[in-house]
């Protein structure tokens, strides 16, 4: 239902449109046939039917018929019509205007219904995709946790200390994986609701990168990873929690979709926009690049890599397709940009740029 305020605006548009066309027709009434003005008014009703609700369109049709009779059919400035031909013409004009208005409005409603149906179908596809992914991504760690706990609780099974340690490690890994998937779902919910409000504070991005790699020690066990950053890298004013999740998701993604032995390089740089050095407003940038020498992204799919629920066609089973879309949302929430490309020698390159305040590490921060 259209709000009352919008309805008032639509009524005003309807009346003013007919008035403007009528005044323009009045200015050339003596040099063109009134039937042409009737066609223009009919065309106006058709245009209004595309944008306005049915009541406002019907009002425009009635006003158009009255204006045609009152201003353009002789005798002028009266609703009286002298001959039957003009009366029939006016009646046909009014009927055609009404039919045109109703049909155009119905077509618009049908198109809206079709779009809503398509949106529901797409939503169901996304919903099914999410369920299919979660059925594997959540069920597997839950089953691991339940199975390990069940084994530990069995009194008739004698477990060695090493066996118990292995089971506890399995529970820990499964719990971390489960927590990762749940965090992604919660973060996507926050992004969809527009609830993300960054809380900027001084962050050591180099330390955040090391923390993310340490959390992913199990996933990175078969990879060679390095972190490149200057020793005098300044602190950047960013949201600590969002940056932690961004780095975690990108490094986790690199560990999952590159072969064993692949290199993962995290580079953090401080840069100043050279175009602004001569001005008072210097733009300082934090540039984070995460690159690997794996398979890279298919060129045909690289533009969809950040789409919600999208997974590469030839990727391995599992995964919800939320990790990269969350990364993009968190980067943009901090007014940053992220680009994805394939390296010439092979592998994927994620580059994030944040225009933020910075603080030299040897400077004391005053809160």
Describe this structure as you would to a colleague.
Helices cover 55% and strands 14% of the residues. It has 367 residues and is α+β, with helices and mostly antiparallel strands. It folds into 3 domains: 4-112, no CATH class; 139-193, no CATH class; 200-359, Heat Shock Protein 90. The strands form 2 sheets. A 5-stranded mixed beta sheet has the order 2-4-5-7-6, with helices on one face. The protein has a 3-stranded antiparallel beta sheet with strand order 1-3-8. The longest helix has 54 residues, at 84-137. The radius of gyration is 33 Å and the shape is elongated. The two termini are 51 Å apart.
Cα-based radius of gyration, to the nearest Å: 33 Å
| Highest CATH level, the class of the largest domain | Alpha Beta
Structural class: alpha+beta
Looking at the overall shape, the CATH architecture of the largest domain is 2-Layer Sandwich
Q: What is the strand tally?
A: 8
| Fold-level CATH name of the largest domain | Heat Shock Protein 90
Helical residue percent band: 55-70%
| Sequence of secondary-structure elements | HHHHHHEHEEHEEHEEE
> Helix count?
9
The CATH superfamily name of the largest domain is Histidine kinase-like ATPase, C-terminal domain
Strands in their spatial order, largest beta sheet: 2-4-5-7-6
Give the integer mean of the pLDDT values: 81
How would a textbook summarize the main sheet? 5 strands, mixed
Count of discrete domains: 3
Low-confidence stretches: 363-367
GO molecular function, one term: ATP binding
Main location: membrane
InterPro entries: HATPase_C_sf, HATPase_dom, His_kinase_dom, HisK_dim/P_dom, HisK_dim/P_sf, Histidine_kinase_KdpD, KdpD_sf, KdpD_TM
EC number: 2.7.13.3
């Amino acid at each position: 239902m259209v709000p009352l305020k919008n309805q008032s605006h639509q009524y005003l548009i309807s009346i003013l449109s007919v008035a403007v066309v009528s005044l323009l027709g009045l200015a050339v009434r003596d040099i063109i046939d009134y039937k042409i003005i009737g066609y223009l008014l009919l065309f106006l009703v058709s245009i209004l039917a595309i944008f306005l609700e049915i009541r406002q369109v019907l009002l425009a049709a009635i006003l158009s018929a009255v204006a045609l009779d009152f201003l353009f059919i002789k005798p002028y400035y009266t609703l009286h019509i002298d001959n039957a031909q003009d009366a029939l013409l006016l009646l046909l004009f009014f009927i055609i205007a009404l039919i045109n208005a109703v049909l155009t409005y119905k077509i618009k409603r049908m198109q809206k219904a079709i779009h809503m149906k398509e949106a529901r179908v797409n939503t169901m596809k996304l919903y099914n995709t999410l369920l299919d992914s979660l059925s594997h991504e959540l069920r597997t760690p839950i089953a691991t946790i339940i199975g390990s706990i069940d084994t530990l609780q069995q009194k008739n099974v004698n477990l060695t200390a090493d066996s118990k340690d292995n089971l506890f490690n399995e529970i820990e890994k499964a719990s971390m994986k489960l927590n990762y998937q749940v965090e992604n779902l919660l973060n996507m919910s926050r992004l969809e609701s527009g609830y993300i409000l960054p809380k900027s504070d001084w962050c050591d991005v180099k330390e955040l990168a090391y923390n993310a790699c340490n959390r992913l020690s199990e996933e990175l066990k078969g990879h060679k990873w390095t972190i490149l950053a200057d020793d005098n890298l300044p602190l950047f004013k960013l949201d600590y929690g969002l940056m932690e999740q961004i780095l975690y998701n990108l490094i986790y993604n690199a560990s999952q979709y590159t072969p064993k032995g692949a290199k993962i390089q995290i580079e953090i740089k401080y840069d100043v926009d050279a175009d602004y050095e001569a001005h008072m407003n210097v733009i300082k940038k934090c540039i984070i690049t995460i690159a690997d020498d794996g398979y890279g992204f298919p060129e045909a799919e690289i533009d969809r890599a950040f789409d919600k629920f999208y997974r590469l066609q030839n990727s391995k089973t599992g995964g919800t397709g939320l990790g990269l879309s969350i990364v993009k949302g968190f980067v943009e929430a901090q007014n940053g940009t992220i680009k994805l490309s394939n390296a010439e020698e092979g592998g994927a390159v994620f580059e994030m740029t944040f225009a933020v305040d910075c603080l030299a590490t040897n400077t004391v921060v005053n809160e």
